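Entry 14. Two folds queued back to back today. First construct below, sequence then structure tokens.
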Amino acid sequence: MDTTTLQSVTAAQWDAEIVPQLTDYIRIPAKSPHFDPQWAAHGHIERVVRQAESWVRAQPVAGLAVEIVRLPGRTPVLFFEAPARGAARDGTVLLYGHLDKQPEMSGWRADLGPWLPKYEHGKLYGRGGADDGYAVYASLAALGAVQAQGLPHARCVGLIETCEESGSYDLPAYLDHLAPRMGAVDFVIGLDSGCGDYERLWVTTSLRGLAAGTLTVEVLTEGVHSGDASGVVPSSFRVARALLDRLEVAASGRIVPPDFHAPIPDERIEQARIAADLLGDVLVRKYPFAGGTAPMASDRTEALLNRAWRPALSVTGADGLPPIAQAGNVLRPGTALKLSLRLPPTTAGDAATAAMKRLLEADPPHGAKVSFAPDQAATGWNAPPTAPWLAAALEHASRAFYGKPAGAMGEGGTIPFMGMLGRSFPRAQFLITGVLGPQSNAHGPNEFLHVPYAKKLTACVAAVIAAHGSSS
């Protein structure tokens, strides 16, 4: 492998083709179905899938076939395949990504916006470019670079979905439908994860699960004067707060019930220790803390384990609370809170969500009307032991294109597809990686794609595909 040529070729394709493609992609508000129930009528998901399909068809990959696969009533997927060339093995490489996006979110810089792409100092700003519209483009660029050098590769298939940000609820049907065409997958590359910094190849070794839904507390059928009712009618907010105390210790953020915890493997603890040393203060500095806010753990290794292996609760939305400027002296009839409970990778999402519902609805304070409506349940993923060929390939690629050794750590996010593939292909090896590094802010304001890092990551993926094709 000529690593210098490989890096220059992939970088040139990013500049000439991929950045313009992603610039157009960012302009399209292709929100995931969970955030746009009328996605089919609006047509934005259709536009991004067709845009990607058109680009894939134009790639100089020998034997490449691509199509948009549709099942009735479900979001579409983009499926492509390329036959093996000189590979020493009969397996199949599965390349995964998605094209649906998170919603707008407030707080964008005045000159930026979710659907307003801007390329500045190597960063492409806008919703979805890094999370992870780039995946299909990087995957095909990597495969094309392998073929351009005449390097071997196994049969490759790509599965690009449009339901990931809604929990991939359409994916199982497509996995069943496409199973005969996917074949014996023995290596999965997923480009929908993160990186600890922009200085090396980072490999994700685990992903947390998720139990999410809406907690609703009702105490009245209509609002009443707070001076008349407070002290007699319980506050719906206080009832909700008391219910959350069943889940979480407010002072520390520790999740109380054992149902939501799992043992942390020794290997993952050691990886967290090494990653903490590699990252140093970047681990904390990457977050935009306000004022004197301090992290929940001062020890960096513990912070990484909190982020990757321990459950944590976030309240991500609320109904029933008027804006402060319109908040009169009224005891409100109810409060609804959107809850997102991240789970350890090995905790079953469905069981945890059911336990969460039982916990919150049982014996409500003051007999208030309480309900918890789940909307997402996902089991996380823990990588199998890394095969020697893959460990060597990852280290070689990181040193060749970044000049530093590779890093590994668990990620705090959830990619339900990984758990599905882990169950479908229990003997497969996994390269789960991505471009979501410090300040990239996926799902939030000012999301960006770090283009120089993505260029090198594309070269790394090409090198690992070639190493897979050469191994036996």
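Second construct, same run, same settings:
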Amino acid sequence: MAISKERDGELVQGDLGMKTPPIVPQQEWEATHQRLLVKEKAFTRSRDALAAERRRMPWMAVEKKYEFDGPKGKVGLLDLFEGRRQLIVYRAFFEPGVFGWPEHACRGCSLGADQVAHLAHLNVRDTTLAYASRAPQADIARLKARMGWEMPWYTITDSFDVDFGVDQWHGHNVFFRDGERVFRTYFINNRGDEAMGTIWSYLDVTPLGRQETWEDSLEGYPQTPPYKWWNWHDNYVAETSPDPKWVDIQIDPEGAASRRRAAEAKG
């Protein structure tokens, strides 16, 4: 693909084969970017407000008992929480009749699985992500090994998919556990599923949210200062915090850089 060049002050179009936006000097580009940034910041605040409203949605009690096949045998919905309070279950299409079977799961579900971030960051916020399909466990284990996926993945054995709106299409169901009681708190599917994969996208659909002090949450919800709980995925230990130098860099990157240079100057 040829690149546009500027020759004697005249723009020479390359071989793009498409209409492009105007080419402008840096000052004009920066001014345009700043105007758009205002709208992007407004969008971010709107998204935060929507997440706050989502945290205030009523809950639905899950009275029916569901059973899944897991790597170690039969388990119930409570077991999928793995002892945590929040659970997100994604219904992935991997079963006889799905395009790609038995070598692959649904192409869209597989693309989504490739986007899943490291689960340690989600787990430390008292949240578990699990996948569920109708494929037998042996096929699921084989697929996970082939594709390099690490998320827990269970076999649906009853009406779970029908009852929670994912029998004919994909979707994320969100649940909260209070002791032995389970509640459905949210559901997202269709194009909403496209954005899932980052730790933030998962936490933003949970009833507790990101659990950071800046969030607008109900009274009594667990919250900690932003950044301070962030850590390397292999370094999360109960009741510990990241190295203070790491926290310093995250909270005040410019100041941290200045302090580092000053320390290096002192030798």
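Quick look at the second one. The longest strand covers residues 181-189. The CA atoms of residues 13 and 260 lie 47 Å apart.
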